[in-house]
Amino acid sequence: MGGHQSIEKQQPSPTPQPQPPSIALTAEALVAHEAGEPEHEYANESFSSWRTGTASASRASVSSRARDSVGSHTTPMSGNHRNSSQWMAQRPSVDTPLPVGGGAMPGGGPGSAYKEPLGASRRSRSSELMRASNDSRGGDAQAAARPSNDGSASVYSAAGSGRSSFALERASLEANRASLEAFQEAFAVGAMKPAASRQLPDSKQPAGSTADGAEPAPAAMSLDQMMRANQLPSSLREKFARLVVLPANTPAPVSMLSKLWQAEPADVKAALTAFAAKGVLNVAQLPDCKVWCLPQAQQLELLQAACKDAAPAYHRLLLDAYSSSVLPRISEEAEQSACSSPTNAQQQQQQQQQQYHGQPQQERGMQPGMLPQRLQDIPDDGYILINLGHHLTAAGRHRQLRELLLDPDWLRRKLVAAGITAVVADFRRYLLIDKCADIKLVLEALQLSAAQAVAHPRAAGLLRCLMVNRLVTAPLSPTLQAWLVEQRRLIYDDSRQAKLSGMPRCLVPLTASLEQAGGLQRLTLRGHAAPATKVLLTPSGTDAVTASSDGTARVWDLDIGDCVLMLEGHAGPITDMAITSDGSLVLTCSTDGTARAFEMERGQCLRVLAGHTAPINALAMDPWARFVVTASSDGTARVWDLSSARPVHTLKAGSGEQGAVLSVALSPCTRFAILGCANGTARMYDVISGQCMGVMAGHTGWVHLVRFLPDGKRAVTASHDGTARVWDLHTGTCRHELAGHTARVNSLVVAADGKWCVTGSEDGTARIWDVTTGHCRRLLTGHKAWISDVALSPANDKLITASGDGTALAYNLENGDMLCSLEGHSGPVHAAVVTRKGRFAVTVSEDSSVRVWDFAARMVQPPSYHEGKVYTVAGSSARHVLVTCGEDCDARLWDVERGTFRGLLHQHKVPIRWAAFSEDGSQLVTVSPDRTVLLWDVASLAIIRSVSVSPGSRIRSFAASSDLSRAVICKWDSTVVVSDLQRGDSLCTLQRWGERDSATGHTSAVNQVLMTPDGLVVVTVSKDCTARVWDSSTGMCLRVLTGHTDSITGGFISPAARLLATFGFDDTLRLWSLDSGQCVSTVALPDAALQVALSPDGWKVAVALSNASVCVFDVEDTTAGRPLEFHSADITGLHFTADGTEVISSSLDASVCVWDVATGAITGMFVADCGFTCSWYDDELEQLAVGTDRGIVHSLDLGLQPRSMPVAAAHTPAAGAGQLPPATDEQGQGQPQAEPNAAGAGGEGASGPAAAVNSAAAQQSQRDAGLPGKGAAAAMPPPPAGAAASQLQGAGSQELQAPPSPAEVEVTASRAVRRSRSPSPARPAVADGN
User: Fold this and answer.
1) Which residue among 109, 473, 945, 1264 is the one 20 to 30 A from 451 at the CA level?
2) Can you point out the beta strands (E) in 410-470?
3) Which among 358-367, 1034-1043, 1205-1214 has the top mean pLDDT?
4) Which helix (H) or strand (E) holds 334?
């Protein structure tokens, strides 16, 4: 490192570098080179030496060195460089002078113009303002700013030097971004009052400061010395001292200073004018006429040292002033409340007294004698909301800070106003003082939920709801368990308040179905608009860079969990990335045929390497960014000189498709490159001369992976032929063929010591190979799909495999054991990387998300959900029982009220696509496309009958009557058969394979079949643009419904109104009378329909369109009206509520939305971690069950009264078991009982927040109601085989129910009224699974 630093200080040559001579390298020359002979002359030149005119040291996060000063701020135009080593001098940095007045760049001459850098955001411009304002030491505000050595990172920097482990500096800058940008605007319009030129007395350079051009840190001074140095009058002494409370880089408004100085606004402005005249601070008047100030960085630093003993008292004074400022408002509200309801006012006063009982007034933030007020009630003035945590910490009021961190309303308020960075900073401040495990878990729950809450700020209580559900299985202290119960009650309070105010309420999950805090998944990072395909870590390991098919790369702060930089400019998906050894430069290449160089300070694109005529597949960069090699499908690879952005050599590998260059690797000495080609060869080139050193032939498929071994004398290639080969680069011969995979090799990684390598294959396995012998050391299995990437920990003790099955597996390389399965993505995992110490892994997926995993976290036993997608969900409102069918070919039975697992149905060999309960809930039918139709007894989980289906093609559509007496089956060959499910044989055939006679049936393929609840009528819809109504008993076609002009894709039957709805590719919906066959209405739709639902009374129609919107209209309407837009992906579920006043939609975008039918307004929503694939609504319980593409099942409560939160137990009976398991207590050991008075409470699976309820109180409540307690539940014997499900349900409900509260009685009565007004007919037995 010492030699590298000395190189950085070299001044660049004033003349361009001479072109290196061509060198014809032989095998002997290669041996001599690897033995240590010197390379070409520019091999000793570092990237930093030509990065800027003064060789500014890198601001990479890997470096802790102070920044060198930048001596030149010129911005040469691209392609007109007098010195190629100066091309990055155009990079704007935090040292670039502030843009002022009309876009002129200060210090750049009268005519120099400032332009927004490509790829930079407004936040980076605010960083410029902050740095210039803080670093200027006097003179005119428009003079060139001086560099600072405060070590703070820029606002959107992923590479700040000296950044603290908790990233508080970045958090401060990001949180105050808005006010800093306002200062920038004030500069632009000339509304800034510049600080006067004043230089503080010189002092000795303190230890640890830089001596290589950076300005030394100021020496310590007393307050009186600072007053004299700044020539401030004694009348300003106290005001000057109180400025110590301001955080660095943080503007403050006059309103805040008025409280801090206890002065009138006019006096504050006068004092600010005096301070600005003496160079202490800058003052700006914003467009809203509000005045803000920003202290000089050096002044504030000296002031903090001089007044550190008095600072806590000043912080307390400011907090008390803010608290007292809300007294008039609250006192007025209390007076009005007392006039209207004295009892309520007394109750509020008692609650306030209880809240602060035993707490000193000084710690409450109040002066003695003042009424206590919550800090959460302080109105925001643009300053206090962001910086309240800073002042509480400095004032020593850690208890109040903890209260804020445990208040989801406050967290949501700050999250929306300042972003996740500022909120996390408050948690970090507290954890630096008290490493409380509960606060850490709350922080994890917040970070997992923040993105969803910010995306839907209007949803009342969404953040609270998500955080509470993520803490259900966490090991919480009794105090936090009680807090969790209280928060769950507040969720329903939020819902009721939202309904009154017309805001969307949050649907409450009744099971622990969200990703749990404290588990393996630490962070979920969202932002890419397309699949994320690549990931790499910065050298420091604190930031991750991800590339996506949306053409952008993003830099994520792994401490905070936020995107801090976006690199954009490509017109196509990014295919590969590379980063310099100091982390200051990232190169990306794309299918648009270009490569781009981005600096990591603000994301500016410095160079565009254009010249290829086809997509670039891979790139390899010299660690010091002197040159880069790109491999393209145009049959060439190019060696680029980054200083001039021009190709030095064009390496031709072939022509046509077989000549495409798929991969490239640089040798450890960076002199040689190996290209992997589509013609099955690998070619080695000298990058200096461009000469081909040799061709390595032997593979019979594409060579798409190439790696050098650390010694530089051998290389490994991997191919689509399923093998990898180890090559001797001296002779060009193949030493070993690593054969064993049965499909192509997708990934290849070489160990740091070069003794072994790992390959991942399309066959779903990974193999560890001994490079010396060519033998397979170990075979790693476990995936159910292809392996797309393998990643090694730096210590070579852990291996991560990413797979197309949506998971990543971690293995212990010492013994080959699987450590854990990283499950959370809802699409194939494309890439993975492990951090430097091996504790964390980062994965990217087809679902566009980036996930961070913590191997040191506890292993949370997942509920008994499906493996893979959930294809269908069906339930019985009579018995409140639910069945889910997934990609794992299993059907799982659930208790809807309790949310607990009841049993496993494991007989199908292919995934079940259709399921339906009988009307009384005693029987269940499951159907899979392989012509397997099984009838089950729900009580015993035993098969009643296997229904015979004639041989032929697979089943395409299925429907059954409400009592499961009959069913209609449609196969892909358009054979339609009506079967008797109870006898297991067929009744009649409506249409046979090969029949295309319009007189007897459809003339084209049948898309879907429907059946009325009584089973007497069957409807078929076809590609021939017609629908046919059949008599299921005789097989006669009753009528043909014509009118559609394109293929009919689906339909829906309303039993109450005897209506049939059909829709198709002609973008129309037609309503037909089942009795007469007449077309009642034709509605033109804005787009093609995916699903249709009719209200229980049959008078309203809801249509889910292919553009992810919903249309709701009356059956008599002829137009669909305005589409209701909320979802961003296909809608997979659509239901009316029991009274027909609301429509519920679920989508693949992981959201559920509740719409008001009359107004079209959103009245409720829920957001999950993965997409919803199917849903079922229980109108009796007002619960929605939704399946996901990860196999998880959510049970969502649409009601407004609290219920318990049972946890779905991970109990799975053995395959083939026919007995229903007895009701058992599945609470965690030592956990108290569930809430005794919750409607539909479920103590069987209760844990988490319900466990915080006092056990004695719960048992007493049960005794008062005459109900059996916990022991009675555990002693219940299993029901006999074939027992009615009602008996089991009744026993379970008696165990858990309690006397209803008045509110619950009111809700029950309202439900009965709705049902009496709008009778709900029998739900259609099943929806088409296709």
Assistant:
1) 473
2) none
3) 1034-1043
4) helix 327-340
